Amino acid sequence: MNFGLLATALSMGIAAIGSAIGIGIAGQASIGAWKKCYMSNKAAPFILTVFAGAPLTQTIYGFLLMQQMQGSDKDPAFLLGLGIASAIAMAVSAVVQGKAGAAGADALAETGKGFSQYITVVGLCETVALFALVFSMVALG
User: Fold this and answer.
1) pTM of the model
2) At 99, which CATH number?
3) C-alpha dihedral over 56, 89, 81, 130, to 10 degrees?
């Protein structure tokens, strides 16, 4: 079995699974927030899509790591460990980002205030995935 090739696939796939879960969580909350707005005859803020879509970037990070790993001559066992660990970090980042986005969508729809604070927390969740990507690329360097 080619563990290096398996590592590249897992780095992208696991990160994408996290993105899908995170988008599902934030998306459901955004839809619920819009429903509350409609029921209250308030304008439904389109900006809630930002919260719903934020976890998608972890899929991109997984893809970038996959590309970097494909060109690596490191030990395949190392690549497998790095790919799995990094992708799990990205996936968890996406899930918690979806949860933070869900809370932000609900709060923004209810109050109409606080977008910059809410998106800051969503961005902090994103930072974990960025660190995982960058530090993994450094380890491959």
Assistant:
1) 0.93
2) 1.20.120.610
3) 70
Residues ≥6 apart with Cβ < 8 Å to 98 = 21, 22, 23, 24, 25, 26, 54, 55
State CA 90 to chain mean position distance.
6
- Token match 């729809």: residue? 109
pLDDT tens-digit profile of 113-134? 999 999 999 999 999 999 999 9
Q: What is the pLDDT of residues 14-37, one digit of tens each?
A: 999 999 999 999 999 999 999 999
C-alpha dist (Å) from residue 78 to 1, 22, 44, 52, 62: 15, 28, 48, 34, 17
SS3 (DSSP) at 25:
helix
Q: How many domains does the chain have?
A: 1
